[in-house]
Amino acid sequence: MKKPKSYSFILCDKHILARQRRRRYTLNMKKILYIFVFSFLLNFVWENLHALLYAGYQGGKITEFILFRASLGDAVMITVLALPFLFIAWFQKRSWLMIVIGIVLAILIEWYALGAGRWAYNEYMPIIPFLGTGLTPTIQLGLLGYLSYWAAVRREKNI
């Protein structure tokens, strides 16, 4: 005849499960923070490099503060974009979708910003035919978002 679990053993199981949940939560928060920091750094470098392809921002000069703010906004968007890929198995199996979603998001942002006059391209910006958006801003969120996610997932596997 099978003996029922003792009360102390059940408490021990609850503590183990609670500890495992805390560890999973901590690991997920570290991944989210890593994605944010890494994507901010990548975007800051990217923004500084492709700023030469813009004529200006809201009719004025592009400053380091504007590039910093743009990098911060991009890092927030990439972090939010990465959340389903961190927590939902269906997305985890299709991580390449992050590139597609990032590119679509970038195209929508570019269309809005160009239409509203927030920024303008100079003659050196390569323009994607039919879309009318610049090549570097169009691929930025998808490419850097995927790199940030990939680095965070890879980093976890190496820990």
Keyphrases for this structure?
single chain; 159 residues; mainly alpha; two-stranded antiparallel ribbon; 5 helices; 4 strands
Main sheet strand line-up: 1-2
Taken from the alpha-carbon principal axes, the silhouette is elongated
Report the average pLDDT across residues: 88
- In percent, how helical is the residue content? over 70%
* Ends apart, CA distance between termini: 44 Å
How many beta-strand elements? Answer: 4
Overview of this protein structure:
This protein is mostly helical. It has one domain. The chain is built from 5 helices and 4 strands, in the order αβαααβββα. Strands 1-2 form a two-stranded antiparallel ribbon. A two-stranded antiparallel sheet has the order 3-4. The longest helix is centred in the N-terminal third of the chain and has 44 residues. It is elongated, with a radius of gyration of 22 Å.
SSE layout and pairing:
Blueprint: H1 7-50, E1 54-57, H2 64-87, H3 89-92, H4 97-116, E2 119-121, E3 127-128, E4 133-134, H5 135-158
Antiparallel strand pairs: 1-2, 3-4
Helix pairs in contact: 1-2, 1-5, 2-5, 4-5
Summarize the structure.
The protein is mostly helical and 159 residues long. It has one domain (31-158). It is 73% helix and 7% strand.
